[in-house]
Amino acid sequence: MIHSALAQSTTTPYRVTLTDPQGHTWHVDEPAAKGGQDSAPNPVQLLLSALGACTTVTLQMYADNKGIQIDHVEVHLQLNPEAGQNIIVRKIVLKGDFNEEQHKRLLKVAENCPIHKLLTSNIQIQTELLI
């Protein structure tokens, strides 16, 4: 499956409108300190939210499939690129009825969510400038 999104500038400085072929629309903006309006998540927050959403959905799907009761999933994510290393810290809080063995398996499942796999793989970006 090929995934796609379109990013387009707007008349508001540093605010970007994003769309996909299914008709969804969302936005990115920079904080006021960087000249934006802080009207939407910044690009790094958007990246982190993709990992958090994917982790949550992957855990829910696995639990549903295996009959494990998960009442709530919470994924806290942080990235501090100014520290000189690109390390994403992910802390997962699970609430539900599961044993220690299932808990260990759920951690492995989280590490296998598609966005986690993508971010830890050898990513290549092919860029072409069209005028």
Automatic annotation (TrEMBL):
Q: What name is this protein filed under?
A: OsmC-like protein
* Region listing for Disordered, in residue ranges: 1-22
Q: What does the organism's lineage look like at the top?
A: Bacteria, Pseudomonadati, Pseudomonadota, Gammaproteobacteria, Moraxellales
The source's superkingdom equals: Bacteria
Which SUPFAM superfamilies does the UniProt record give?
OsmC-like
Query: What InterPro entries is this protein classified in?
Result: KH_dom-like_a/b, OsmC/Ohr_fam, OsmC/Ohrsf
Native species: Acinetobacter bouvetii DSM 14964 = CIP 107468
